[in-house]
Amino acid sequence: MANDQTFLRPSRRRALQLFGLGAAALAAPGLMRVGGAMAAAPAAPKGQAVVAFSQEPTVFNPHLLHIEVDEGIHFSVFDPLFGVDEKGAFYPMLAAEVPSVENGGISADGLTWKVKLKEGVTWHDGKPFTAEDVKFTLELMVDPAFRSWRRAGHDLVRQLTVISPTEIAWKMEKPYAPYPAIIASTFIVPKHAFEGVADKNTAPFNNAPIGTGPFKWVTRVPGDHIELSANTDYHGDGPYLERLIYKYIPDLNVLYTQFKSGDIDVVGLQWITPDHYEEAKALEGREVLLLPRGTIESVTFNTERPQFKDLAVRQALYHALDKQTIIEQLYYGLPTPTESYVPQQSFYFNPDLPKHEYDPEKAKALLDGAGWVPGADGIRAKDGVRLAFTNSTTAGNHIREQVQQFLQQSFQEIGVEMTISNLPPAVMWGEYWMMSQFDSVVVGLDFLTGPDPDTSDYFLSTSIGAKGGAGQNNWQYANPEVDKLLAEGGTSFVPEERKASYLKIQEIMRHDLPFLPMFQYVSVGGFKTGVEGYVPNVNVRIDSWNVNTWAWA
Question: What percent of the chain stands above pLDDT 70?
Answer without folding.
Answer: 92
